[in-house]
Recover the amino acids of this structure.
């Protein structure tokens, strides 16, 4: 008998599983695909207060998010990078006093933060290279945190497992039966699980899961808003990112990505279908034109090396503009006819840890839950110091591995040693030992799991290398 079964292995599901397991609850998570195989790997990858939410007067969300910025930096330093964001001044869109008030609030709401405060700058003088057109002279700079979103989810899942949770991946629920005190959950592998409570953390799928698997009609509605990104060949040198104000009052980001690329996004495109989101022609054109209205060396279609799209599961608040719909989260509990089910609506990557704490608080009405919150103090796997000298892995591939796995490279080193010189070479600095490590230690099963969620090696990855990877995968599965 589980205390809680969580459906959905996106950031919210794994965050709840980690917190629950750490509080000693008998915890299980069921994910129909891979960890973070939906929205949680398709974000802009920012742990941020969300400077633009100030315009919607959403101070509570901004404050909570800014505090989380410091917490996530502390518990996951190996997969996060503090980034300075440059906001070129566009007087016709927002006056300088509005921006100054906004940034003042942003700094104040951060409380005692380790992040650099905002300031006014000259675009040409502050950074090594200024990619912005000469007609934009000045701007502002403030701080936020860039994160490897899918690895953040993965590490939460791994920590949940280390603390006793059971995680089923690539597993479907066939049906559920509600009892007075518990749920019976029938899985497609023949197992039947019993649990005192269920959490439905299936993001964009939340309402359909509640309806079709649990037979419950939700009172809340979701607003499904697709956002797309372009990854292009690096536009400029330098570690700073840009937040660009557009004529439609939206903003888009331009962020250095994986040394060779620039990440550009995002859009707000309302959709009804949330399976397999794909960038539309209009979104692509919008992103290219928007960036080109700011940068000196304009980009063209051919510069694009990868695109991705995800669907935001926002709580419907009947706002006319998709970009203005609240990014906050809410819960709905159904306990009328027996054991409880709690459904998560909305949320952001940034607030997953706080959301998880709140879910456990809600569940304490039904199951015995320790009220000791702990997830802000305990680091995620791989976040400890690294002793590089003790590793045999050659220096030329060590850097990427450290940037991806942090202190988990000690474990990778054991796999390296199992093979002669790391085993078969797949592509550039990617060898067989890493594949075996990912299968055995990080629950990878497919080339997509490896190339796009455990790593981002899949960007610009040649077909022959993919074929080779498939052969090596079969060898070790
Ligand atoms: C374009 C875009 C940009 C964003 N940028 C940011 C950002 O920069 N910063 C930020 O903080 N937030 C950002 N967000 C928001 C953030 O990504 C989401 O709020 C968050 O990832 C949602 O996580 P989730 O766990 O609720 O949903 P998901 O990640 O979608 O997870 C739900 C999981 O449930 C699984 N599932 C569905 N049905 C079933 C079933 N029947 N059985 C088992 N499993 C099931 C799915 O496979 C999926 O893995 C962005 C979102 C988008 C779309």
């Amino acid at each position: 008998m589980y205390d809680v079964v969580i459906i959905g292995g996106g950031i919210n599901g794994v965050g709840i599983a980690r917190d629950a397991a750490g509080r000693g609850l008998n915890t299980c998570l069921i994910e129909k695909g891979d960890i973070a195989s939906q929205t949680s790997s398709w974000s802009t990858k920012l742990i941020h207060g969300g400077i633009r939410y100030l315009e919607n007067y959403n101070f509570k969300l901004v404050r909570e998010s800014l505090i989380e910025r410091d917490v996530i930096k502390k518990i996951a330093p190996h997969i996060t990078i503090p980034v300075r964001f440059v906001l070129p001044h566009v007087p016709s869109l927002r006056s300088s006093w509005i921006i100054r008030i906004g940034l003042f609030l942003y700094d104040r709401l951060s409380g005692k933060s380790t992040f650099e405060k905002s300031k006014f700058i000259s675009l040409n003088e502050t950074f090594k290279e200024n990619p912005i057109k000469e007609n934009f002279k000045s701007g502002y700079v403030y701080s936020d945190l860039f994160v490897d979103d899918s690895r953040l989810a993965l590490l939460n899942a791994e920590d949940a497992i280390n603390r006793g949770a059971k995680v089923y991946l690539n597993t479907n629920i066939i049906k559920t039966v509600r009892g007075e005190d518990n749920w019976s959950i029938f899985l497609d592998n023949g197992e039947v699980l019993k649990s005192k409570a269920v959490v439905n953390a299936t993001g964009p799928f939340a309402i359909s899961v509640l309806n079709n698997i649990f037979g419950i009609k939700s009172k809340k509605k979701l607003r499904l808003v697709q956002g797309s990104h372009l990854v292009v060949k690096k536009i400029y040198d330098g570690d700073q990112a840009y937040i660009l104000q557009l004529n439609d009052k939206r903003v888009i980001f331009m962020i250095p990505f994986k040394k060779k690329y620039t990440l550009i996004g995002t859009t707000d495109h309302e959709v009804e279908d949330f399976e397999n989101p794909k960038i539309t022609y209009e979104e692509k054109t919008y992103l290219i034109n928007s960036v080109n209205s700011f940068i000196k060396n304009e980009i063209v279609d051919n510069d694009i090396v990868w695109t991705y799209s995800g669907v935001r599961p926002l709580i419907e608040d009947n706002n006319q503009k998709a970009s203005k719909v609240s990014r906050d989260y809410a819960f709905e509990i159904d306990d009328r006819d027996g054991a409880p089910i709690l459904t998560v609506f909305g949320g952001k990557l940034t607030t997953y840890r706080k959301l998880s704490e709140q879910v456990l608080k809600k569940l304490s009405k039904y199951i015995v839950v320790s009220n000791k919150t702990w997830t802000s103090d305990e680091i995620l796997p791989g976040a400890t110091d690294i002793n590089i000298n003790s590793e045999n892995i050659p220096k030329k591939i060590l850097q990427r591995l450290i940037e991806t796995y942090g202190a988990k490279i000690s474990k990778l080193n054991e796999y390296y040693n199992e093979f002669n010189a790391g085993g078969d070479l797949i592509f550039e600095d990617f060898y067989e030992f890493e594949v075996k490590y990912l299968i055995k230690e990080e629950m990878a099963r497919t080339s997509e799991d490896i190339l796009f969620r455990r790593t981002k090696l899949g960007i610009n990855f040649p077909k022959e290398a993919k074929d080779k990877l498939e052969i090596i995968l079969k060898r070790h599965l």
